[in-house]
Amino acid sequence: MPLDATIAKVTEAIEARSETRRATYLDRMRRAADEGPRRAHLTCGNQAHAYAAMGQDQGALAEGRAPNLGIVTSYNDMLSAHQPFERFPQIIRDAARAGGGTAQVAGGVPAMCDGVTQGQVGMELSLFSRDVIALATGVSLSHNTYDAAIYLGVCDKIVPGLVIGAATFGYIPGIFLPAGPMTSGLPNDEKSKVRQQYATGEVGRDALMKAEMASYHGPGTCTFYGTANSNQMLMEFMGLHLPGASFINPNTPLRDALTVAGAARALEITKLGNDYRPVCDILDAKAFVNGMVGLMATGGSTNLVLHLPAMARAAGIELELEDFEAISSVTPLMAKVYPNGLADVNHFHAAGGLQYLIGELLDAGLLHEDVSTVAGDGLSRYTQEPKLKDGAVVYEDAPRETQNDKILRPASDAFQKTGGLKQLTGNLGHGMMKTSAVDASRHVIEAKARIFHDQESVKTAFKAGEFTEDTIVVVRFQGPSANGMPELHGLTPTLAVLQDRGLKVALVTDGRMSGASGKVPSAIHISPEAAKGGPLARLRDGDLVRVDAVAGEITCLAQDFEAREPVMADLEGNGHGVGRELFEAFRQNVGLASNGAAVVV
């Protein structure tokens, strides 16, 4: 099947606008690669420090003829998704020795849990943690002793931060090894129902806690299709995972075998061998387009609209919001995974998962086949699924028919003809809306605005019974410069209750929602943000606002809107407590949300 014309046009546009930045990036990577293996440039004293604690591997490291893998880990046992990484370094070391190489933990990066900080002050550090992770990756690899890197990360900001770091060290190969999703617990729709019941006072905190603990119950990624699992999809579509690695449960024989296989493959693709595959060659414009197609086809997290531009910039690629919309316009929504459906990621994987999706999208001409991946040349390798035979991973062709058409459908008979991500522009700024889980009757809402400066004020107004008519709920001063751009996912139960009562409601914010956001229309990432004098700062209570996901418009209809002076909020309280003092330089220097809200790229 020839490549779809829109996909080809978007790719060409990205390549054209990125030409200068990409050429400079690749020139730097080629010159760094031409210097040869990193360890050759260290003094004997430098090397002695690096190998002093390596025991039986000291000889191999000192001789410098065998590849040395640097492990960058985000392990901690507060994140269920990252707790399994505790075992990975030893598995990787053993696998490296078996393959004639060595492996060292190069360093650790922080990994915070948005589930723990959701609605809390700590969430104001969440987006900035992506840049800290990129910086920490840089520190980890700066010792210059590694021929390839293995990146251990799963969740929201961790994978994007690691990718930014990997791209910066793009002259060495890198493989991302995931930990996998936890086994299925309380169904996500049942958990959501209890949350709504708690919001209305129908059940108490004991019932809410019981439901939450039954849903998040063991090691592994949360099973809804939020940012963490969208990240795993992205790494597979972009060729940084081994095929089929994303959704194998933790601490299973196949999961461990994939970790061994990943280490073995990392040894094979260093510059010391015959199949050198540096990250800089994998992360090209085609890979990022493939990632965006995967985002649309699966109905993935809106957070990736922030992360993908930041990751791309680190690799010399310039993405714009119009790229997302154009790709969404031709990519069918082929998956129904919560919150877009009732299934969780384990059900999705059992129905055919990413292997089925990639095969269908390749056949439909919606993906670039001619890409470099950690597994080899060509994305068609990712239509194969891993099986465990005699203790080792072997690959077999995956079924080419969906195993459950309520969860996965072919591109020719998709759930929707488009990917459900819409760019919004107008006199209120520039933002995005995810429509894949929003009923079509709610894609256009025109109503009076209620203005809030934090999500708790919205909840207070709700409890006081103040929402009695169709309403555009505006939560402003939530952008990266104002307070780090926290997710406002805590508003979802409240707004969903209003919607279920028959009101038309929409959220407009310069903050974020998460991949767990669902049926409430939300115009998010509005840029420029209110704290920078953006248009949201001119809105007043009672203004008639139109949010139109069909035409792609977000507009205040007040006649004097353009003439108003923007209000200024008192943001002094955002600068201290729970570590916020340390991030003042980030708030002062962060870029626009439309460019990824990044500090370091």
End-to-end separation in angstroms reads 37 Å
Report the C-alpha radius of gyration, rounded.
24 Å
Characterize the overall form: globular
Judged by helices, strands and strand pairing, the structural class is alpha/beta
- Strand content is 5-15%
Please state the average pLDDT score: 94
Query: Which stretches of 5+ consecutive residues score pLDDT under 50?
Result: none
Q: Report helical residue fraction.
A: 25-40%
Strand count, sense and closure of the main sheet?
8 strands, mixed
Strand line-up in the sheet with most strands? 9-10-14-13-12-11-15-16
> What's the total count of β strands?
16
Number of helical stretches of at least 4 residues: 22
Could you provide a short overview of the structure?
The chain has 22 helices and 16 strands.
Structure description:
- It is a single chain.
- This protein has helices at 5-17, 19-34, 44-51, 58-63, 88-98, 114-117, 126-141, 158-168, 188-199, 205-215, 227-237, 253-268, 279-282, 285-298, 304-314, 321-330, 345-350, 353-363, 455-463, 480-483, 492-500, 584-589; strands spanning 68-73, 102-108, 148-152, 174-177, 372-373, 376-377, 384-389, 392-397, 421-426, 429-434, 444-452, 471-475, 505-509, 522-527, 544-548, 553-556.
- It has 601 residues and is α/β, with parallel strands linked by helices.
- The radius of gyration is 24 Å and the shape is globular.
- The chain has an 8-stranded mixed beta sheet with strand order 9-10-14-13-12-11-15-16. The chain has a 4-stranded parallel beta sheet with strand order 2-1-3-4, with helices on both faces. The chain has a two-stranded antiparallel ribbon with strand order 5-6.
- The model has no long low-confidence stretch (mean pLDDT 94).
